[in-house]
Amino acid sequence: xxxYILLFLCTAFIILIxxxxxxxxxxxxxxxxxxxxxxxISGLRFELGGSDYYIYREGFEAIPKLWKLNQLGDSIENIKxxxxxxxxxxxxxxxxxxxxFNFYGFTVIESAIWxxxxxxxxxRYINDWAIVLPVFLYKLFFxxxxxxLRQSITIAIFFVSWRLIQDKKIIxxxxxxxxxxxxxxxxxxxxxxxxVMQFKLTKKRLLILNVIAWSMFLIDKLGFSIFVMINAxxxxxxxxxxxxxxxxxxxxxxxxxxxxxIAEYMLLMLLVIICFDKxxxxxxxxxxxLKIFTCLLPIFAIFSGNVVSTRFKDYFTITYGIILMYLCxxxxxxxxxxxxxxxxxxxxxxxxxYIINFDAGGLMPYVTFVSKGIGIFN
Length: 378
Hints:
Layout: H1 2-20, H2 24-43, H3 50-62, H4 76-83, H5 87-98, H6 103-122, H7 132-147, H8 151-166, H9 170-181, H10 190-196, H11 203-221, H12 227-235, H13 242-252, H14 259-274, H15 276-282, H16 286-294, H17 296-301, H18 307-312, H19 318-330, H20 334-357
Helix pairs in contact: 1-20, 2-6, 6-8, 7-19, 7-20, 8-9, 12-13, 16-19, 19-20
């Protein structure tokens, strides 16, 4: 636990020190060093990430090198069915293995992909990473860089695709969506993001959307679930498709999202509505970011009682940090420090709660494969 405490304290200290720095270049150096640090922490981890870690390791060991796929008489489809992994992810495993890397080298490569895509894809929208970093540690760090190796790739691809949506490069965007879908079926949600993002977001429209969504939330809590209707529709669709089969599985799984997470979103949405005009004036990219943030509204308000919410929300939750960045920049005085203090406190609670509760301490203690004398090549 000490290691994780030091990591979070280091991140909180970055907020403090960047408040004192005036030059953007100095801040940029600090942020790059932080990214290098978490890249190494994620990439060099050893047997941390619960049962998923071992499943992914077994899958990597089972997949042959590219030129041996046909020699073994196993088609990609058969391997996919055995391992329950998508074809793109399996080919990626095989490609990395063909280059001579072992599973530990694979985790290093995947970690590099995640952080490079995150930094490069989001730097247009984040001009000061300080308040975003603790939000990342709380919301995305463990699940997407320690546990989920397939969906994390699709989220990284989505980060890179933000500017394609904003620049209306529809063909390139959907090509990336198809690529992401080959790695994880959850990327299906990305196909509806582009058309949704073409609507202009105003304060009035945001209020109307919230009234509708939270009204449906209350109706659901009264026992009139929307999933009854969705399940009825899915039951009439043949299950031959892997995506349809997975959709039926997701709809049947009861994994309600924590009321604490719903309350977080409601609070941040309230602040967005109150400060909407100031946020829009502050940054030319702010409307775009707010629309990404609003994509979470149906997930939390309508689908909060289903596993769908946990599958899809990670594509959009990085916007929490960006919106908090806007709130800090709107008022450079006392309110800025209140926002920073409250953010660090809430993120610390969620961060340490996750470490303690996940898989009965499956993230502790932090161990690197380097300390075990293991390399990254076969």
